[in-house]
Design goal:
Pfam families: Glycos_transf_1. The protein is of the alpha/beta class. It has 16 helices and 23 strands. The longest helix is centred in the C-terminal third of the chain and has 18 residues, at about 500-515. Helix 4 (about 210-225) packs across helix 5 and helix 9 crosses helix 14. It starts with 6 loop residues before the first strand and ends with a helix. The chain has three domains: about 5-75 and about 210-310, Glycogen Phosphorylase B (Rossmann fold, 3-Layer(aba) Sandwich); about 85-205, Outer Surface Protein A, domain 3, CATH 3.90.930; about 320-495, Glycogen Phosphorylase B (Rossmann fold, 3-Layer(aba) Sandwich), CATH 3.40.50.2000.
């Protein structure tokens, strides 16, 4: 009889980048939650990224929290040995010319290679290699060796005579080729035509990354010391792999956003193709999950194939935050308004800025800070121009992404959100847990779950800029009432405590998965 194994859950996404979006932010919070309650879990990522270890550390994670497909097949999940430096590179018959982060290797006056090195002493040793470029007789780059931030050569790109990517190889720690991909031109893009994998003394061929991803998920099931379960998060990336799996494992799809292309037509609008595909493969899924009961109802009403929809919120407030000393309202920066949002059309930040211009006319000391990375540079440029045209340029700041926003929340009097649609934005609950009153368009989905209208903030008609401005002016006009709203936000955030959210995950997913192994 097979020995019983404990469950491990893999949270599936594309990559943990230097700046993560809301989906990966939710995964990281969930990972901490699962570990807090002694449930084994890892974040499993698809894309190759030689900076992954650095990104993990930036977001408070460790190598053991991650299972990357390329690291898995390259055998590089764990490396703590010597880091390669420029001094390790010798090319016979050359002289070396050093210029800042670059070492050029010259033979008879012609450049044959360039070694580029990392410079940040917090993360790298002196002259640690980032990449090496090799040049042909005409001076054109024909090969680039890329080094993982942990200090070993990880991959090589080969270029054709036109400088286009033609072949890519990835190595194990002994420098042996484990993955090879062949590339071709498709329109303006380079695309992989085939992947070849050297794994367990066999050669495996995959037509695309989705096939390889399905094989990776199967291997996680076959080789894990635990019974594996999968929770897909960035579904348009991870579902194609799950649908190609041959091994059985409990699978759950978490919807972080709206399920129709028109966010205002959730009952009648065209369904997202990902959801349609999930219904087609309904027998492969244990359930879908959404962050709010209203979206679960809306999705279930459109469901075919018997697939069940469950509700588990994405936001989680750590015990440490709930236990932290509350910020006296008098210690907050007067008339400071914040939003945490990437610069993207979904966030409709031009509405927020237009509303703020009205607020600033009433309260010249008012300021607006928008924190988040830039998805679309043109939108940022347009926002800055809008601020100049509105005479509020000195009162508005667009600030790049930062992992730790505690001090930002603790200094704000209002958190304002103008999105066109959401799933359930983590930032709303994070702000509430720091005692920030909330003002938001009443959009699908999420704001109504955390804003008790008139108690800890205001819900306003979606798309109504004047109503958004009026709500902020009303709030700022009564500082005593705003202080009461701050207290109410602290209290309402308790709904999303770790024990409360974990109980849902345990009852609706963990127990379900264990019952269907």
């Amino acid at each position: 009889m097979m020995e019983e194994r404990l469950m491990i859950f893999y949270f599936l996404t594309q990559m943990i980048d230097f700046n993560v979006s809301g989906i990966e932010h939710a995964e990281i919070k969930r990972l901490h939650l699962f570990h807090r309650f002694d449930q084994a879990a890892k974040i499993a990522t698809r894309n190759y990224n030689r900076y992954l270890t650095l990104n993990l550390h930036r977001h408070g994670l460790h190598q053991a929290d991650s299972m990357n497909m390329f690291d898995y097949f390259q055998g590089t999940l764990d490396y703590h040995a010597k880091r390669a430096t420029q001094a390790d590179v010798t090319i016979a018959g050359t002289t070396v010319v050093h210029d800042n982060t670059r070492f050029d290797y010259l033979k008879a006056g012609q450049k044959v290679a360039s070694v580029f090195v990392f410079t940040d002493p917090k993360h790298y040793v002196e002259n640690q290699i980032e990449e090496i470029q090799y040049y042909g007789a005409t001076g054109q780059i024909w090969r680039i060796d890329y080094y993982d931030v942990r200090g070993f050569k990880s991959s090589t790109d080969y270029r054709d005579q036109e400088g286009k990517l033609s072949r890519q190889v990835m190595y194990d720690l002994n420098g042996q080729v484990k993955i090879e991909s062949f590339w071709r031109q498709q329109g303006d893009n380079d695309v992989a035509a085939i992947y070849q994998l050297d794994y367990q003394n066999k050669l495996w061929f995959f037509r695309d990354l989705d096939e390889m991803l399905g094989f990776f998920y199967d291997e996680l099931v076959r080789t894990s010391d635990h019974q594996a379960g999968f929770i897909g998060d960035r579904l348009y990336i991870t579902d194609p792999g799950m649908h190609q799996m041959q091994e059985w494992a409990p699978r759950y799809g978490y919807w972080h956003n709206v399920h129709t292309y028109d966010p205002d037509a959730v009952w009648t609008g065209k369904l997202n193709d990902v959801l349609v595909d999930q219904m087609t493969h309904a027998d492969m899924w244990r359930a879908l999950i959404t962050p709010t009961s209203r979206q679960s109802h809306d999705v279930q009403s459109r469901m075919t194939g018997g697939l069940r929809v469950k509700t588990i919120p994405g936001p989680i407030v750590p015990d440490e935050q709930l236990a932290a000393a509350r910020v006296p309202f008098s210690a907050r920066t007067p008339y400071k308004i914040i939003d945490i949002a990437r610069i993207h059309e979904q966030k409709r930040l031009d509405h927020l800025l237009a509303a703020f211009i009205q607020v600033h006319a009433q309260f010249p000391a008012a300021t607006l800070e928008i924190h988040g990375y830039v998805n679309e540079q043109k939108i940022k440029d347009d926002l800055l121009q809008q601020a100049r045209d509105g005479g509020v340029a000195d009162a508005v700041a667009l600030i790049d992404y930062t992992p730790d926003l505690g001090a930002v929340y603790d200094s704000a009097q209002i958190f304002a959100m103008s999105s066109r649609y959401e799933g359930f934005p983590l930032s709303l609950v994070e702000a509430a847990s720091h005692g920030v009153p909330l003002i938001s368009y009443d959009v699908n989905y999420g704001p109504e779950e955390i804003i008790d209208d008139g108690k800890n903030g205001y819900l306003v008609e979606k798309g109504n800029i004047d109503a958004l401005a009026a709500a902020m002016i009303k709030a700022l006009s009564d500082q005593a009432k705003l202080a009461e709203m701050s207290t109410a936000s602290y209290e309402i955030a308790k709904r999303f405590s770790e024990p409360n959210v974990w109980q849902l995950w345990h009852d609706l997913v963990v127990k379900d998965a264990e019952a269907h192994l």
